[in-house]
Amino acid sequence: MSKGRDRTVSRRPDGMWENKRNDAERASSLHKTQKEAEQAAKRMLRNQGGGELTIKGVDGKIRSKDTIAPGRDPNPPKDKEH
Q: Structure pTM?
């Protein structure tokens, strides 16, 4: 279930990377690289009390999902991705 503060990082048709809340129409910030957009999204989630960050690759498919603290992940992953 998506909460209002959850965010997605994805590539726009113009080549820029956007950091966007899942319930928003417009991007919160635009960046030249995916890493910059990911860092901005993590910083915003921490400031908002945590949440889920979804990162999409160039092809638009989900590449990674992560719960940003202080959010509580009810089903923490068993892998060591983050």
A: 0.81
